[in-house]
Description:
This is MBL fold metallo-hydrolase. Keywords: Hydrolase. There is one protein chain. The protein folds into 2 domains: 2-199 and 361-418, 4-Layer Sandwich (Metallo-beta-lactamase, Chain A), CATH 3.60.15; 204-355, Rossmann fold (3-Layer(aba) Sandwich). It is α/β, with parallel strands linked by helices. It has helices at residues 44-48, 68-71, 90-106, 116-124, 204-219, 233-246, 260-270, 287-290, 310-318, 337-344, 364-374, 388-402, and strands spanning 2-7, 16-21, 24-28, 60-62, 86-87, 131-133, 137-143, 151-157, 161-164, 189-193, 223-227, 255-258, 280-282, 296-300, 325-328, 352-355, 378-382, 407-409, 416-418. Helix 3 (90-106) runs antiparallel to helix 4. The chain has a 7-stranded mixed beta sheet with strand order 6-7-8-9-10-17-18, covered by helices on one side. The longest helix has 17 residues, at 90-106.
Amino acid sequence: MYFYGISGSNKIGGSSYFVKLGDRKFLLDMGLDPNLPGVYPKYENLYRKKLLTSMGDLDGVIISHAHLDHIGSLPYILKEGEKVPVITSKATKVLGKALLLSAPKESDDYIEIFKKDEIEKVFSLISPKENMVAQDYEINLYDSGHILGSKMVEIVTKDERVLYTGDFSLKNIITAKKMPLASIKSPDVLLCEGTNLTKNMNSYINERLGFIRYANKVVAKGVLLVPAFALGRTQEVVCLLKNAMKSQLLKRVPIYVDGLSVEISQLYNELGVGVLDEEVKIATNRFYETMDDSPKIIICSSGMLLKNSKSYLYAQKVLKNENNSVTFVGYQDKRTPGFKLLYENSFNFKATVNRFSFSAHGDEKEIFQLIDRLKPKKVVFLHRNLKEQEERELEKRLTKIYGKNMQFYFPKDGEELNL
């Protein structure tokens, strides 16, 4: 197998990888990098390296899930690649289209790359499928446990078997199906995400219980604002809170959803995952201006308080009262208002600011568990953000654990591997 990391190999964002098995050519994911607004992966390098003469040379594009860093540049395929099969799940098609069309509403900082008609057209070309059998290869998708519709990708030829994890988690979460680890065959090459590669996260159950206990304390007197990613994190938090109230672990107070989180939660309902019901209120227009400080919970996007997003507008009011709290449940980029509020103390506020980890990415323990179970011959770590020294030390550890029969690779963006 030939591998070329277009983007997202040694960074988190803009994931897109070119693989060639025999004469067959595929793209795994076509994402955007949220830290590089207005820029998509350097697909022109595929032509410069003579890997493709046009996007139409591809045998398929396979999208693992609907987060923008994995699907955001899909309309680029329209450049002479309209007839290329796009393989993904039904939920990814529905949710990905909504995200691309709605992203400009989320923040003033968003730079629109693709026009509405391009987005509409590329998604109209997708006929969702979770397996594809051709004359000399087979593609299978398996649940990855990350968000609704997220999939691992298996490509099988007569000579080799490759498995791309996309973003995955072995944890039991409420709103996504768990990975069927026992039914996945051992691959020759494992293309594995490494978001939390050197981290061992706190127990997911303990983190959830801690969040519920903290929420109870806040809503005894005030407002709990939870900035959350519109896709995946919002729905998980809403369902967790509803379950906690039903089991009397959490005081019953109004739950409000606002921002792009509303549209995505409505789509979850349509896709069979009940998020919005009589217990959850959709915030009225400009609710952030008229709301009082009576006990309530508000979950809304953006998860990083991007400027002029709904969560940013709510935070300006919530932060003024010492009984209130702004509590984060996701990653904060260093350049965002969320990071500055949480870590830099550069704001003047009275409310409490807190954070809990709801990561739906496998940590070191889960990644090792995946490798233990699958026993691949070669492992390529992608979607990672490590220093070179950390990678060298990790490679030594892995070689010590698994021996020289298993090889490990840490490619940079633009690097080629013949595996």
